[in-house]
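The instructor's notes for this session suggest beginning with a concrete chain rather than abstract definitions. Hand out the sequence below and ask the class to guess, before any prediction is shown, which regions might be ordered.
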Amino acid sequence: MPGETFFKKTILPSGLRVMTEHMPQVRSVALGYWLGVGSRDEDDDVGGMSHFIEHLLFKGTKNRSSREISEAFDTLGAEFNAFTAKEYTCYYTRLIDQHVETGIEILSDMIQNPLFATDDIQSERKVVLEEINLHEDSPDERIHDLFMEALWPTHALGKPILGHAETVDSFTAEDVLGYYRQEYIPKNMILAVAGNVDHDMIVEFAQKHFTSSGGDRVGRKHIAPHVEKKLDVYTKKTEQAHICLGTEAIPANDNRRYTLSILDNILGGGMSSRLFQEIREKRGLAYSTYSYHSLYAETGMVAAYAGTAPDNTEQVIKLVQEQIEGLANGSATDEEIYRAKESIKGHLVLGLESTGRRMTRLGKLEITDSEILSLDALVEKIDAVTRAGVTELAQELFKPEKMVLTVIGPFELEKLAHLA
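After discussion, reveal the predicted structure:
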């Protein structure tokens, strides 16, 4: 099986999965606890809870205060942080190899023994509410949440990771503890480690410091959402109009995910991409324009973004539409496909020289039940993408009746209705 030669995996009696990748050429280690819980797992009345608990785990444990946690990592010269996504949450650190047991011990303590003190919940609630306010005041970031909501208005994947102010403001200590006990169980966790480590040693440290047990992983309902053509305009007095145009894509386990990476790269993946060249370089209509894609268990999304002066909004939307339609009509060239392949392979190889990227790859792919391939196998998959495959996928995805357009700017919906 691909991957067996470059990583090792052990499932502890508790259900915790321990995964390691040995990198003998480095002196650093990246390690992270990955949990299969994110914003898609939240009921409407606890929207934002996964992210809220991520914050709270830094507020102290039964064994050490928040300050002691920070001082411990600072003393080690370590990086440490966490993040929440739609399908997972991760707590991680990167440190030198001689301190790996200490890193595992502290992260294990944070995950197993959070205090969830009432005062901490109240104070961190204010912090998260400020984070939500900041996000909503940043239209270049907010536009992507609004696009997801428009794309999947009734599906769990359309929920914002931060939640909404009204739900976060209503969280009680009982809500927090109940959600934590339901989701933070060993069978829903992975300890992923990459760097100058020995697998058996990491397993020993995990068994020593991660002693929680019990609980079963809650299965998700994987229902593919229905997507329809839509235009949403959010009227806001901004200096720039922010545009997001896209549609649903393929799920994470679809073999065409490599083809999608090529298609995305050609559309807006770099400075030589169509969006960058047509909108920024040739016409100077935007400073920032790009495309991106995300893949999930039962579906995915692909979208193009541009920020432009309000007076140029219609022109930029038409230019984005033209590039998307062109790819669906088979205009991708052999040169573009070659350049995209080499770009993706180059970024892949450079990225995997990092212990952090290697750890992230192990944890993310395992927690989402995805295939973990070796670098050579990945390169083969990328090289196997054909021009015909790119065109076929573009035709399948970029159907006019499924295109979703979301705009933030100082105008009303009627101004752009003819473009939808």
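Then share the key points. The chain is about 40% helix and 20% strand. The radius of gyration is 23 Å.
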